[in-house]
Hints:
- The protein has one helix at residues 27-48, and strands at 51-63, 66-76, 79-88, 100-107, 114-123, 126-134, 143-152, 170-179.
- The chain is mostly beta strands and 187 residues long.
- The strands form two sheets. Strands 1-2-3-6-5 form a five-stranded antiparallel beta sheet, covered by helices on one side.
- Strand 5 and strand 6 form a beta hairpin.
- The longest helix has 22 residues, at 27-48.
- The chain is globular, with a radius of gyration of 17 Å.
- Residues 1-19 and 182-187 have low confidence and may be disordered.
Amino acid sequence: MHENLGPSGGARAQIPSMLRVGSALGPAAADWIRRQRALVEVRDAVASSPLVRVVAIAATAVANGLAVECLALEIRELGAIAWLRFRPSDKEDTSLRPGNPVVVVVDNADTSYDAGAIMLTGHRRGGEFEIVFTPRPPDDVGELRLGVGRFVAPPSMPVPEATPKYSRSIKGPWTFTLTMGVGSEQR
């Protein structure tokens, strides 16, 4: 849900021509790449803003053969970044090949968040991703929920850069509820 997170526009000259609008990519793949690029720019802005606090989470949720671990939430002046890992819950299962996570962030104060997921690593046995969201949670929020609704395959690129084969859409939910009060933070 990061449609409102827009690119700064200054990076266009550094983007290879195959990733520009009107390239040889199909429209769905080109749109997906544009949204991911915009989210990376937002992530960079959030990550470079002053650190407010870190909330340790260390929780695991399991659904449909996939375990998702939420490690920590880094709250910064412009937003927040959650660190997550995923893997098949059965160590012997090699059939799952999760795609990209579809995420949502909500709190008990009904704050409107723009959120998206950035894959850091991914392979047959699991991977890592970040949930990036803006704005940062208000200081008076008591409870924050990070949710992964499903993992979906990104649109395929044209040959020879075809996307690896992914599993079907893997539905969750994988939900992590954070108490934002005293005792849940690390400085």
